[in-house]
């Protein structure tokens, strides 16, 4: 893929990776929302799974991949990405497909590992950008309750400026918003806005995918003075909710198509208002074309949000390279031009981050 050239020498044209600062022009092809290392096991709920004796200890294996395609949370083991060697192997598929930068969205409480990210960046040669902030309310550390928004914002500033043991975060996110969006989570968003105003750092917001809470989240950040072009609202594409996406786009924020590779038909017994169905990638690409034709190309980010073992090549998935390997040709088939594809994979994420 052809890299775009950027003007150098302007303010804020650098970005901090786990291995130090780089120029905006060095970002290249960016995956703006992935999880290199991740631990979502705190969210595991032990429910009976037909055909599995003990879903809390059962490892992900070939014979149970079908079960996971009907409920990706069925096995606790599927919620854990903790093997650095495996992460390196899997990320090399992304690098070999043309990827150069990975934005890691893991945070404290869900397995963020600054040293691990640095080791993996060194082993792969990929730029890895670490996040700061707090994920959904259930993962918030106790200390937050007695802190002011200003103090919480300062915690984020410290990680962006001084780092965690010398390893700096490069953006704020993914800030977590649950199905029931409460004051605890609203405070973190306002704290993120404070940190943004002190550093200029971009913000990524996780929204419970089957809700439309992105509207309120975007409004909170905008009301707090964050520029729309520094806000990215995640997980908009589990289902094709055109009205929701258009409402977000009209606010000027980025919308992130980040469910590529997740095409699950969740079994009825575990489906609920916060855990529903997923459309297929072909349907996502059809909507993408429509949004581009409506003039929203500059506000779209594409990535996989790889957050489950069964999405890795090793476990039968399409891996971190899925967008580059499989979705790019699908977009071309849909009539999206190579310039438009490059804008979404190179220019947009660089503009959002820097
Ligand atoms: Zn998320």
Task: Tell me what the structure shows.
This protein is α/β, with parallel strands linked by helices and 354 residues long. The radius of gyration is 19 Å and the shape is globular. Bound molecules: zinc ion (ZN). The site of zinc ion has 4 residues, from loops.
Characteristic terms for this protein:
single chain; alpha/beta; TIM Barrel; six-stranded parallel beta sheet; three-stranded parallel beta sheet; 10 helices; disordered N terminus; binds zinc ion
- What ions, cofactors and ligands are bound? zinc ion
The CATH superfamily title: Metal-dependent hydrolases
Work out the helix count: 10
The total domain count is 1
Distance between the termini: 21 Å
**What strand order characterises the main sheet?**
8-9-10-11-12-13
Q: Which value, in Å, is the CA radius of gyration?
A: 19 Å
Number of E-state strands: 13
Spell out the blueprint of helices and strands.
Layout: E1 14-17, E2 20-23, E3 30-34, E4 38-39, H1 65-70, E5 80-81, H2 84-96, E6 101-104, H3 114-124, E7 127-129, E8 131-132, H4 149-161, E9 171-177, H5 183-199, E10 203-207, H6 214-223, E11 231-233, H7 242-250, E12 254-257, H8 281-293, E13 300-302, H9 322-334, H10 338-353
Parallel strand pairs: 3-6, 6-7, 8-9, 9-10, 10-11, 11-12, 12-13
Antiparallel strand pairs: 1-2, 4-5
The structure holds zinc ion (ZN).
């Amino acid at each position: 893929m052809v890299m775009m050239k950027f003007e150098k020498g302007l303010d804020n044209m650098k970005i901090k990776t786990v291995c130090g600062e780089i120029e905006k022009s060095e970002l290249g092809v960016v995956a703006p929302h992935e999880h290199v290392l991740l631990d979502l096991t705190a969210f595991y709920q032990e429910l009976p799974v037909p055909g599995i004796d003990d879903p809390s200890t059962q490892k992900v294996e070939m014979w149970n991949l079908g079960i996971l395609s009907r409920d990706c949370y069925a096995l606790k083991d599927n919620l854990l990405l903790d093997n650095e060697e495996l992460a390196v192997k899997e990320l090399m598929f992304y690098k070999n497909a043309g990827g150069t930068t990975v934005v890691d969205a893991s945070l404290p409480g869900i397995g963020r590992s600054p040293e691990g990210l640095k080791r993996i960046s060194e082993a792969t040669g990929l730029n890895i950008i670490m996040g700061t902030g707090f994920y959904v309310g259930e993962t918030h550390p106790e200390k937050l309750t007695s802190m002011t928004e200003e103090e919480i914002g300062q915690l984020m500033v410290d990680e962006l400026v001084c780092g965690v043991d010398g390893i700096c975060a490069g953006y704020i996110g993914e800030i977590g918003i649950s199905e029931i969006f409460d004051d605890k989570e609203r405070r973190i968003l306002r704290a993120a806005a404070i940190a943004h105003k002190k550093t200029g750092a971009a913000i990524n917001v996780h929204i419970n995918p089957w809700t439309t809470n992105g509207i309120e989240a975007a409004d909170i950040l905008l009301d707090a003075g964050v520029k729309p072009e520094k806000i990215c609202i995640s997980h908009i594409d589990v289902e094709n909710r055109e009205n929701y996406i258009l409402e977000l786009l009209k606010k000027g924020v980025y919308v992130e198509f980040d469910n590529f590779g997740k095409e699950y038909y969740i079994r009825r017994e575990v489906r609920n208002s916060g855990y529903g169905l997923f459309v297929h990638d072909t349907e996502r690409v059809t909507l993408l074309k429509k949004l581009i034709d409506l003039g929203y190309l500059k506000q779209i980010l594409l990535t996989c949000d790889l957050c489950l073992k069964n999405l890795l090549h090793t476990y039968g998935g399409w891996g971190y390279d899925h967008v580059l390997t499989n979705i790019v040709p699908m977009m071309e088939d849909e009539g999206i031009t190579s310039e438009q594809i490059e804008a979404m994979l190179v220019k947009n994420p660089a503009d959002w981050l820097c």
